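Lecture 7 notes: from sequence to structure.
We start with the chain below.
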Amino acid sequence: MAIQNVHWPVLPLDQWQDTYHTLHLWSQIVGKIRLSQMPWINHSWHVPFYVTARGLTTSLIPYGSGAFEIDFDFSVHRLHITTSEGEQRSFALKAMSVADFYRKMMRSLGELDIKARIRPMPVEIPDPIQSFSENEAHASYDPEAAGRYWRALLQVQRVFTDFRARFIGKVSPVHLFWGAFDLAVTRFSGRSAPKHPGGAPNCPDWVMQEAYSHEVSSAGFWPGAGLGEAAFYAYAYPEPRGFSEYPVRPEAAYYHKELGEFILPYQAVRTADEPDTLLLDFLQSTYEAAAELAGWDRIALERRKPHPGGFT
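Predicted structure tokens for the same chain:
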């Protein structure tokens, strides 16, 4: 195994799926708190989390004349709430039910005089049977597994940011949507798109329609839900004719007919001699499939030479 691989941790879903499901639901509680306070930003860009040197953050959330932020710290396994007035609350991330996490979260906000009302039901999860306040079933937290997941996000964030920098058209931040628990980056052609049909589980159709109001080529990373393994994905909306047959790279990539997306297993990247190169090849070739087949103005949208960077 080449030296680059040591930075890409193993992430077998069967070894941490209980922690994964619990952490996903915890993230939705925190995400909905951010959502409840933020002004609407196009394509739901006010919703996601961001990868940090210690875990995940909501980034700054406006509140009254001040602000606060909430951080998952996977280095010391704590949840931190920090206000612009210098106040803090924190509690350990450990095995506890979703209901317990919900109560701790709301109690901590109350102690900081932050009032945040949320609809306590999961979104983008098929057939949720319990509200956050009643869910005692999901209660797992393996610190080592959560740490491996965060270290994987660090690597994916780094490569996605490199890919993002190669586009000078409209492009999203690299951000983690807590609905589907995926880290994503999206490029836009600049043209409007047909009305999206919606259909995401427990998510209003208008949310999806606003998110896909314009043509996109999007890529992301799932820890494993729905596929049984961690994987990268790429899709186009609207999907141009011939997209599924386009010869994307690398060889391990394939088109998943039910999802309507190209898939590249995380394991193929992690075990490659040059993981960054392999993943960038997937991102670039799937983007080219969308841009070429849909007739994007690539000359106007792409950076032809690397930016020199540095100080002037």
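Points to note: Residues 269 and 275 are 5 Å apart (CA to CA). The longest strand covers residues 182-192.
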